Backbone:
């Protein structure tokens, strides 16, 4: 009998956000509102649809393995050299490539916890040790929802090849500020690669939350990870990118690229999306305005919601998570539960968020009535 590597056998499955189709099949709820995976609610950009239509005629050919046009467009957009840019089949694949490229078995990857749930899985696959540094309260008396950068710096040891700093943090939405991040980068050894995972950068509105691409300048051990899945609306096409200060870092990541894994459709769409940046900015502004409204509405209901700099909010409801998420699903609203910790709710359209708030009110008043 064949058997997988022990590390793989022990791997918990990655649990993506559930889809309306899952709810229809499992509990017979039709037309659920999906606020589980941090996509934007807007349809694809018109220029993207046009580019996809044109690219469809070429899908009998392999894509450009080097994604030359997209890489050049990204380099131009961010004022870096193409040699500093690597594209990948979603930022998640680039995370995995980073581990493959930098972690020998027995070395380590450090990150805050809780954070993006792929970090521990990809460390385990790479036979690397995970160093997890617990989040700390972002404000006195609040829930643990913010990076402890001093703790993270102290936890880095001479086995640590990669540190992920997810900014803003998924799933809590909190962001670290410029001075703290600069202090952190100043003390991490130059032999450890710091990856600023900025999957949600486009939703940041606090001017004190630094742009990783600016912080990266002059620091050869820093790279920035971004994605077209969120603000740019291409989650279904799978394309993300890494920008590294040192082209040697980009080159190492390129070496573990699965050939042709960024499809020709994804490349064409990403180029078209970049050319529609003004429209993307308008959409992000609508999302962040709605984020503030949703945050306010939740706080009015007495919920302890931190300031999110992403396109989702975090409800630190602890032991109520499983019951609340299931009760919301029964009312056709899909959120993302993290057992025993909290529920992450993607900012939807105002109408979708009103459906969520109404469902939440119903669940809570049913709970209060039961408690009487
Ligand atoms: C923090 C973070 N990094 C990376 C990713 C990966 O994004 P994608 O693979 O869709 O580009 C996600 C997706 O949810 C994320 O939340």
Residues:
């Amino acid at each position: 009998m064949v058997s997988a590597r022990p590390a793989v056998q022990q791997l918990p499955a990655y649990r993506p956000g559930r889809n309306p189709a899952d709810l229809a099949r499992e509990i017979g709820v039709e037309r659920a509102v999906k606020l589980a995976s941090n996509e934007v609610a807007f349809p694809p950009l018109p220029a993207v649809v046009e580019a996809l239509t044109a690219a469809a005629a070429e899908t009998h050919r392999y894509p450009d393995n080097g994604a030359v046009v997209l890489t050049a467009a990204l380099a131009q957009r961010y004022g870096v050299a193409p040699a500093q840019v690597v594209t990948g089949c979603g930022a998640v694949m680039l995370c995995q490539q980073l581990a493959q490229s930098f972690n020998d078995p027995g070395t380590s990857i450090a990150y805050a916890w809780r954070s993006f749930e792929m970090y521990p899985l990809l460390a385990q696959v790479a036979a690397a040790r995970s160093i997890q540094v617990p989040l700390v309260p972002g404000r006195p008396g609040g829930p643990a929802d913010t990076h402890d950068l001093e703790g993270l710096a102290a936890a880095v040891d001479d086995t640590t090849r990669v540190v992920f700093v997810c900014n803003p943090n998924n799933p809590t939405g909190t962001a670290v500020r410029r001075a703290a991040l600069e202090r952190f980068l100043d003390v991490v050894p130059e032999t450890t690669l710091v990856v600023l995972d900025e999957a949600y950068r486009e939703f940041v509105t606090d001017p004190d939350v630094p742009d990783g691409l600016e912080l990266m300048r002059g620091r050869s051990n820093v790279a920035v990870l971004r994605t077209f899945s969120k603000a740019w609306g291409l989650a279904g096409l799978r394309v993300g990118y890494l920008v590294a200060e040192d082209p040697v870092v980009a080159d190492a990541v390129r070496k573990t690229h699965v050939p042709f894994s960024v499809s020709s459709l994804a490349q064409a769409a990403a180029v078209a999306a970049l050319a529609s940046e003004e429209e993307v900015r308008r959409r992000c502004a609508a999302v962040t305005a709605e984020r503030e409204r949703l945050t306010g509405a939740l706080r009015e209901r007495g919920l302890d919601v931190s300031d999110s700099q992403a396109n989702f909010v975090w409800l630190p409801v602890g032991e109520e998570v499983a019951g609340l998420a299931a009760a919301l699903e029964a009312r056709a609203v899909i959120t993302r539960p993290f057992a025993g910790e909290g529920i992450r709710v993607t900012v939807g359209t105002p109408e979708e968020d009103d459906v969520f708030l109404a469902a939440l009110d119903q669940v809570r008043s049913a709970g209060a009535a039961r408690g009487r």
Q: What stands out?
A: The radius of gyration is 21 Å. The first helix runs from residue 6 to 9.
